[in-house]
From TrEMBL:
One of its GO terms (cellular component) is cell outer membrane. The lineage of its organism: Bacteria, Pseudomonadati, Pseudomonadota, Gammaproteobacteria, Enterobacterales. GO terms for molecular function: fimbrial usher porin activity. It comes from Proteus mirabilis. This is Fimbrial usher protein. InterPro entries: Fimb_usher. The gene is fimD_15.
Length: 229
């Protein structure tokens, strides 16, 4: 199990210490990390999870000199720390209107954290349904955090009579999310947009025994603001 202090996103804090120095990292009055580093370049990775807003980094040198720097940070739930890996694998039988189909499905997802960037990949395999997704999440500092994901799916609907042809359709869907700190007390937690193209079918809506699934293009917007006092 991942330790609590490594759950959630936190950026890599780097710099150069002129001597043995104590580095304290805080946000909104809470200390996230405090440690002593030797003279020279340093990189701090194991700090507690952060929220939207500025991080304060205080460097206290051995002679008592203090340097304070501010790092603007924005985060989304899809962001991972540098070199962190998340993966998910599942095998099961799809249930349609309370009944299980006789074919298995396989689901796989993989996320990898780079410096201020996380890449995402996922896929679903089923006898009559296949989908793939690619995405990326990026921390832009004071400009906020953004994620983009593109999905494509191919659905095959069973013959309704022995002589009828199978119905095959494919479509695309993509989503965009943005988060930022507007002021010290106001966060734009989530600005989400999703586009679903014609003939795109989510796996949870897919029923291979249906004649077909015809849907029009859909667009959805969502905004969440939070205010702290």
């Amino acid at each position: 199990m991942r330790p609590w202090e490594k759950r959630g996103y936190a950026p890599v804090i780097s710099g150069v210490a002129n001597s043995n120095a104590k580095i304290t990292i805080s946000q909104n009055g809470y200390v996230l990390s405090s440690q002593v580093v030797p003279a020279g370049a340093y990189q701090l990775k194991n700090i507690a999870p952060v929220s939207n807003g500025n991080i304060t980094v205080t460097v206290e040198e051995s002679d008592g000199t203090k340097t304070v720097r501010y790092y603007p940070v924005a985060t989304l739930s899809s962001l991972l720390r540098t070199d962190e890996i998340n993966y998910n694998i599942a095998i099961g039988e799809k249930e349609t209107v309370g009944k299980r189909e006789n074919s298995l499905f396989f689901l796989g997802a993989f996320d990898y954290g780079l410096t201020n960037v996380t890449v995402h990949a996922a896929g679903i395999l089923h006898n009559n349904y296949k989908s793939a997704a690619l995405g990326m999440s990026k921390d832009f500092g004071r400009f906020g955090a953004m994620s983009f994901t593109a999905n494509t799916a191919v659905s095959v609907f069973q013959k309704q009579t022995p002589t009828a042809p199978e119905v095959r359709q494919s479509g695309i869907s993509y989503s965009l999310q943005y988060a930022n700190s507007l002021t010290d007390n106001t966060n734009l937690q989530l600005l989400a947009y999703r586009y679903t193209g014609k003939d795109y079918v989510d796996f949870n809506e897919f029923n291979s025994n249906a004649l077909y699934h015809r849907s029009n293009r859909k667009e959805r917007y969502e905004t969440i603001l939070s205010q702290s006092f």
